[in-house]
Amino acid sequence: MKNYDSKFKYLWEHQKTLCAMTGKWLSHSSKVDMQHCCHQTKWRRKKFPLFIDSILNLRLVDHSYHLTHGSELKIYDLQAEKYEKFLERHPMISQWVNNPV
User: Fold this and answer.
1) Is the separation of the CB atoms in 32 and 55 below 8 Å?
2) Largest Cα–Cα distance of the chain, in whole Å?
3) Are 53 and 1 in contact (CB under 8 A)?
4) Residue 60 forms beta bridges with which residues?
5) 1-48 pLDDT, tens digit each
6) Which of 23, 34, 54, 80 could be bridged to 97 by S-S, CB 3.0 to 4.6 A?
7) Looking at the 3D structure of the chain, how many domains does it have?
8) Which of 56, 54, 53, 69 is nearest to 19 (CA)?
9) pTM of this prediction?
């Protein structure tokens, strides 16, 4: 994933260091994963190239909970398609959500 560090940092600051699934506090010492809400498959990567790795589709989750309950955060294809069309119409927003600084 491109710009992993900047996306992680943005999500860490704006998610208020809470796990998106459990609501528990995440600390700097805990293992944290970035999860795609709309799961990344080859088909979805082709269909939603602007949206799939954007911060609109990513959430920080506790690593141990992610391993056991990985698919609870979901964005379905219809929703992803709306996001993708929005990002196509707004290239500056698209650029920012894929490279937050």
Assistant:
1) no
2) 40
3) yes
4) 34
5) 788 999 999 998 898 888 888 888 888 778 898 888 888 889 999 999
6) 54
7) 1
8) 69
9) 0.84
Q: Residue 49 belongs to what domain range?
A: 4-98
CB burial of residue 66 (10 Å; 0-12, 13-18, 19+): buried
How many Cα atoms within 13 Å fall on the side-chain side of residue 22?
15
Length of the chain: 101
